[in-house]
Amino acid sequence: MALLELDDLTRRFGGLVAVDHVAMRVEEGEVRAVIGPNGAGKSTLFNLITGVLKPMHGDVRFAGQSLIGLSVPRICQRGISRTFQLTALYPQMSARENVRLAAQAREARHWQFVGGGVTFAAAGRRADLALERLGLTAIGDRPAGLLSHGDQRLLEVAMALAQEPRLLLLDEPTQGLSVEETAQAVDTLAVLLADNSISVLLVEHDMDVVFRLAHRITVLHRGAVIADGTPQAVRQDAEVQRAYLGGFV
Ligand SMILES: Nc1ncnc2c1ncn2[C@@H]1O[C@H](COP(=O)(O)OP(=O)(O)OP(=O)(O)O)[C@@H](O)[C@H]1O
Ligand SMILES: [Mg+2]
Predict the structure, then answer these.
(1) Spatial contact of 240 and 228, defined as CB atoms under 8 Å apart
(2) Measuring from atom 16 of ligand 1, which residue has the nearest CA?
(3) Of 14, 41, 108, 193, which residue is most buried, by most CB within 10 angstroms?
(4) pTM of the predicted structure, to 2 decimals
(5) How many domains does the chain have?
(6) Each residue's pLDDT tens digit, 47-63
């Protein structure tokens, strides 16, 4: 059984089919890139998996159980966390506070059992650990809004990581970063993912980043999967080159 299984997943907006009968399997420990031109349906796919949007039909199964109909917090509690394509931080709060609040969101279900104090402390520990894994310990006390753009993107990864997900969804983690910031962020992510303890869905336009991090690649075009395979196979796929790489890279 794959960790994440998408079957026949379909979402329309009016007459537009944003996600079109998508099937996908993501194994435990796998880093899967989802690529495709602007408007291909990548962010919509993330919104369907995380419960932000409901599919018209099809199924999302995580660890063997359907997520259809579950709320966003419930799905997070099952073990799926994400970052957003556009930065989603509280700019006046410290980096550490941002991460601690994110960690606490996953713990919400425990409030009635263990009480706020214990939850607060546990979330603080998970926040410190996540900051450390992203190399952000030194800037933990600074307001998030004053961090460099690169550190803000890594902070968002730390926020998702502090929820201790089994599956991490990263929506364009290097968007808007300089060449140097991108290189640094990718090095940090490569170390984080090296032990295969976490499964990842990665939406990314920078093909160097994709080929550096991904074990497998799924190519979306107008909402449909047009290729799915190893980076090597996808690079050589003629349809992918026509539909995507040729016009984009
Ligand atoms: N809430 C919405 N209402 C109407 N149309 C939407 C909505 N969200 C997305 N769309 C449309 O669905 C299609 C897929 O959008 P989506 O954001 O998933 O693409 P994407 O692959 O993430 O693109 P990008 O690379 O630009 O981020 C686009 O045509 C978009 O305009
Ligand atoms: Mg998008």
Answers:
(1) no
(2) 41
(3) 41
(4) 0.92
(5) 2
(6) 999 999 999 999 999 99
